[in-house]
User: What shape does this take?
Amino acid sequence: MSASPLLNVNGIEVIYNHVILVLKGVSLSVPQGGIVALLGANGAGKTTTLRAVSNLLAGERGEVTKGYIEYKGERIQALTAYDLVKRGVVQVMEGRRCFAHLTVEENLLTGAYARGAARSEVAADLEKVYTFFPRLKQRRQSQSGYTSGGEQQMTAIGRALMARPDMILLDEPSMGLAPQVVEEIFGIVQSLNEKEKVSFLLAEQNTNIALRYAHYGYILESGRVVMDGAARELAENEDVKEFYLGVSGEGRKSFKDSKFYRRRKRWLA
Assistant: This one.
């Protein structure tokens, strides 16, 4: 990882309702131009980590009680989510969260409002979004609530791009989508990373596809980082294969055929 990362999360703890400890000393970093995956089962703390970075915890009665978060070397915990968008950090929420009664194009245009850019500049950015998402150009006048799940996910990512971000926090992009659409979404993420130099921190339960497109990964379990490393190394790790990819030394397993794990997880030994 870069010695001077774009994003640095250092030992944060997050508590909800002043009682429930969700994150327990999570540390991670995202280099400039990197794709970093947060992996783990539902409830591991992935979404909470993203919300801590984007300062959206307050709406869920949560707060960072220990540790700190730096973006481009600046402590950002006191900033509002709006301030962070202006600094180049945009979150694409789980479940896509499009404005259902607005058209696809109107949804995209809402992403540019925080910039205060000229109309010609916004129009140029809109056309750039359409080059990455040609399907959205075809559906530009359709109400977002009547588009497919994949098109809504593309709209949500395209809306984030209209803010000209340096970093996108992407929460569960594969949720509820067909495998072919998931591949298309991750292919676009890779293209945006390579061509537009957008950095990504993405939370994803689909470990297999996340490790194929990410450069680096962190595995969370019960609010702690239990393993991290280069994506290729994690994909070859025996614990990751067995507990997150469903593959053991005996080949792919079905949980219906096994009541117990073959061995304990390395980090619980």
The chain has ten helices and twelve strands. The CA atoms of residues 88 and 204 lie 22 Å apart. The radius of gyration is 19 Å.
